[in-house]
Write a structure and sequence with these properties.
60% helix; rod-shaped; 9 helices; 3 domains; 6 strands; two-stranded antiparallel sheet
Amino acid sequence: MLSMTGFGRCSKERDGRTVTVEIKAVNHRFLDVSVKMPRSIIFAEDAVKKSISAHLKRGHVEATVSYDNTRQDAKDVVIDKALAAKYTEAVRQVAAENDLEDRIDASFICSLPDVLTVSAACEDIGAVTELIRECCDEACEALIEMRKSEGENLKQDLLYHLTLLEKMRDDIAALAPEVPVLYRERLNARLQDAAVQCDPQRLAQEVALMADKCAIDEELSRLLSHFSQMHALLDEEGETGKKLDFLTQELNRECNTIGSKANDARITSCVVSAKNEVEKIREQVQNVE
């Protein structure tokens, strides 16, 4: 079982290029990936998303990629030759008009604004993308390890609440046969208080109708089936969150039906407690991938 919450980080350096990828994930019904990275390497965004989708199936995932290039060919110096010529012409004109000595050198012209511009050189798309992909894969693996650890904690918590729910189901099953008996006793008592004579056969029919109306055997059996399926899913690897969520909805449905049919205060009290446990299970299931 995997939790949907996790964090993974990886940093790699190769041939003067350093890439760091940080990935964090939280709950979400589907896989939702967002990527933050410098514009200079935006060409690798698709590779990051493909790597994440290959490792993760559900969750809101945020990936942050940082990049540093310290290679000698990482920067280019561009000369604006036309601007340099205009600066030279302007300086000479000022010297001539003001009877000044004309001493122009290359260092002076290059120091003037916008003559030289430093810009990032074109990146090796293949090499950079491959480095980012490797880094992203390892960050995802680290995130999955954290998810496994969180998933084990989730599993233990779900088992705890499921065990309580199973005990409540058994308590309800033990109380269910007493409902028609208690109904017959109450009905007899009311008839005696009212001094009304009732045909024993008619009384038996009334009790039988009430017992049929209040029967919860099917619901109790379905609860056992749901419990069994949940135990199997808790031991299963892979994407189980959606299946567990569906089973949790079914558990709640059966509890509601039992509560509406039981016609017994003790069973109703058990149902209220059971629904509280189902809600706790539902909350935790939202964290399962």
